[in-house]
Every structure is written in structure tokens, then in C-alpha cells.
Amino acid sequence: MRILTSLIAVLVLAGTVLPQDRPTLTAQPNTVFAGGDGKFEADPDTAVIQFNISAQESTSRAAYDRASKAAEQIRELLRNHGIEPKTAQFGYFSLEPVYDYKNSKRKLAGYQVNANVTLKLKDFSKIAPILEQLADLDVTADQNLTYTLDDMEAAKAKAVEDAYRRARDAAAAVARASGRTLGELSYASVDTSEPPPVRPLMRMSTVQAQIQPAPTAEFSPQQITVTAHVSALFTLK
Questions:
Q1: Which of 20, 233, 202 is nearest to 128 (CA)?
Q2: Long-range contacts made by residues 164-167, C-beta under 8 angstroms, separation at least 24?
């Protein structure tokens, strides 16, 4: 009976191995080792808007003042949509000289201010008007919209629960086939995979927005899928 149980357990394990590192366990009598893949799907609850502020002028002071004016316009834009400006975050800020290399001798062409801003929104209805108004500012560029889950760890926990259930079901099938019953969990390892942010196509000119709906109009954001793998060792009764 033990030989039959061990053989079935090996076959189940061979069918559940994934192309990634798994713990190596020494076979123990009256145990069964099984693996399960699980997932959890959820609608995104957070939109992340990222964009750059870039201003170039002949002097560092002029470039700085122009960038400051643009930042104030952005703060006013956010207030008009009921958003506190402090919720927007700066990723970096730089003020650097710009050189002209057309001739053999390097020539100072001016100064450029670059800054990256990230804004998180829960109200998706504000996304389109904010992106459109940002595009109207001549010092903003590289607008980027992604969707994500605010509590990713909770989603991972759900995926792990699903994976464990599948692993336990596989182990229980082995136990039944060998005339035994499944006992307690003796060991488990967990791997989770966090998906990349959902990135829809949102770039378009203001003129296009006035003529026809945005390419993403009336569509819903793609669901976020979190996956997990659980390897579990159970005792046999």
C-alpha cells in the first residue's frame, strides 16, 4: 500500500511542477506532496496618471519660473476637479544646462527643467478631462495612464487561498485512490506573481477629443489577475 501511495504521489507531483525553483523535500513515509496553481481576478480600483513637466529657456531663472508657472496651473487644474494638489507626488526634479553640439565646439543653448508627477485617482470619471487639460499645457508631456489595485496584498492572499485549495484537492485525490484519508498539513511553500499595471492607450490630441469619443470610451478597465502557486506536504492516515 505504501508503494502504491508513493507512486501516485510522484505522478501527481510530476504533473504539477512549474518551470521555476521549487523546494526539494526528502520523501517521508505516509505523506503526500502536491502542488496547485491559483488566481484571483478583480476590477482595478486605482488609476495612476503620470506625466512630465519640461520647460526650456535661455537662462536657468527663466526655465525655473516657467516650470513654476506650469506647476501652479496644474495645481489649479486639480483644485477645479476637487482634488487636493498635495495628493500629486513628485518623482524627481532637475535643472540642467542644454548644449548645442552642431559645431565642433560645444555651445550653451539654454537651461531645461524636468520633473515627473504622479497622481492616483479613485474616481475614474475624472481621468479623461484631466488628461485632456494636461495635454493643453505646452510644458507637459509623456502622459501615461495605468490601472492597479490599491491593496495588492489582499489580492495575493486570495490567490494563495485558491492555490492551496487546488493543492489540497489533488492530495486528497491521491489519498482516496490509495485507500487512505488525508491528514494535516505538514509543510507548504508559496509563490505569488503580481501582474504589471494595466496600460490602456490614452494619447490623443485635443482636436480629436472634440470630434469623436476617446478610443477607450464606454469600455471598462481590464481586470487585474494575481496568480499564486502552493506546494504542500500532507500526512496520510
A1: 202
A2: 164/36, 164/38, 164/188, 164/230, 164/232, 165/36, 165/38, 166/36, 166/37, 166/38, 166/230, 167/16, 167/34, 167/35, 167/36, 167/230, 167/231, 167/232
Q: Count other C-beta atoms under 10 Å from residue 65's C-beta.
A: 14
Helix (H, G, I), strand (E, B) or coil at 142: strand
Q: Which residue has cell 501615461? A: 144
- Does pLDDT of 13 surpass 80? no
pLDDT attached to residue 21 = 52
Residue-wise pLDDT for 98-115, tens only, equals 998 877 778 889 999 999
CATH superfamily of the 2-42+151-196+223-236 domain: Protein of unknown function (DUF541), domain 1 (3.30.110.170)
Confidence of residue 57 (pLDDT cuts 50, 70, 90): very high
What number of H helices and E strands is found in the chain? 5, 7
Least confident of 75-84, 123-132, 190-199, 220-229: 190-199
Nearest to 125 by CA among 82, 85, 87: 82
Q: Residue ranges of the domains in the chain?
A: 2-42+151-196+223-236, 46-147
